[in-house]
Design goal:
This protein is mainly alpha-helical. It is 73% helix and 5% strand. A two-stranded antiparallel sheet has the order 1-2.
Length: 313
């Protein structure tokens, strides 16, 4: 079976598996990778960029090698190749878990249980929940849904289309490393530099595709494009900026502003400043937009793979 068909069938099956099953409760492959990366960090950690780059190379390279070896084992079996691609896709995408967490927080806010929403927020993002009121929590959820649509769904599909199973596993490894060591804490400011920069590079195409699809499928396409073009570059993240700005314009809301991470307060630029403040009901709207973007991204990635093969023929 041709590689483009293997990806098409496998990625569709994997995305369906995520839609029906979500993430496994135990023995999640990404959690296993995180434990392995943590063990490597304990051996290699030095307050130095070079040692951090070695850590990134060992961990991300290991994920790529594992994917390539697995593909080699099943390459003579079309069914095995599709099953492997499906399993890898299911393991690395996290759209259903993202939706479940966002909706759980949304239901708590709708019931007036702000404390319950605060308690649940760390499952979705790293904000300091005690500093947020109900509207602040809703805004944090919408921003997290936007960013994670790119990181947890679209980016993985893009790299799966480009590199098959190694692309899927490699992207998730890079994204996980960034979450683990790519932040600006005292321990990881230098050591995590390489992981953060590699994640910026790996996330670039998925973020732009996410922004485009949010504009195409959102309630206000012109507003999404306008907010993206005007505000994306003001965001400190080169990839979260286009995604959050496009979501903000598509939903007609304001994102950005003051937020707190780990006791540190940041004052970020406002995205789509003419939009209204985020309300609890916008969480469900953001979730539905995320779902539409993820499904359309699958179609775009499959089509892109087929077109690329046709040009090589």
């Amino acid at each position: 079976m041709r590689a483009d068909r293997v990806f098409a069938y496998g990625a569709a099956a994997g995305l369906l598996g995520d839609l029906l099953l979500g993430d496994p409760r135990r023995a999640h492959p990404v959690a296993a990778f995180g434990r392995a990366a943590g063990a490597v960090e304990r051996v290699l950690w030095r307050d130095h960029r070079g040692w951090g780059a070695l850590h990134t190379a060992v961990c991300a390279g290991g994920a790529l090698a594992l994917g390539a070896a697995a593909e080699k084992v099943v390459r003579r079996s079309p069914a095995g190749s599709v099953a492997l691609t499906a399993a890898a896709t299911w393991a690395v995408v996290g759209g259903t878990s993202l939706v479940r967490e966002a909706r759980t927080i949304g239901r708590a806010l709708e019931a007036g249980d702000v404390e319950g929403a605060r308690a649940r927020l760390p499952h979705l993002c790293g904000r300091d929940p005690q500093a947020l009121d109900a509207d602040g929590i809703a805004r944090a959820v919408v921003e997290s849904v936007a960013e994670n649509t790119s990181d947890a769904v679209v980016g993985a599909l893009v790299w799966g289309a480009v590199g098959g199973v190694p692309g899927l596993l490699g992207f998730r490894a890079v994204n996980t490393l960034d979450a683990m060591v790519g932040h600006k804490s005292a321990r990881h400011r230098r050591f995590g530099w390489a992981s953060a920069r590699l994640d910026d590079l790996a996330g670039w195409p998925g973020a732009r595709l996410t922004a485009v699809l949010a504009a195409v499928t959102g309630d206000d396409p012109r507003g999404a494009v306008r907010a993206w073009r005007r505000d994306a570059d003001r965001h400190p993240s080169p990839n979260a900026g286009p995604v959050e700005a496009s979501f903000a314009g598509a939903l007609g809301v304001r994102l950005g502003g003051t937020l707190a991470y780990g006791g540190r307060v940041e004052h970020r630029p406002v995205l789509n400043g003419e939009g209204r403040a985020v309300a609890t009901g916008d969480i469900e709207r953001a979730v539905r937009l995320s779902r539409r973007v993820g499904l359309l991204a699958l179609g775009v990635c499959v089509a892109g793979r087929l077109i690329a093969r046709g040009r090589r023929s």
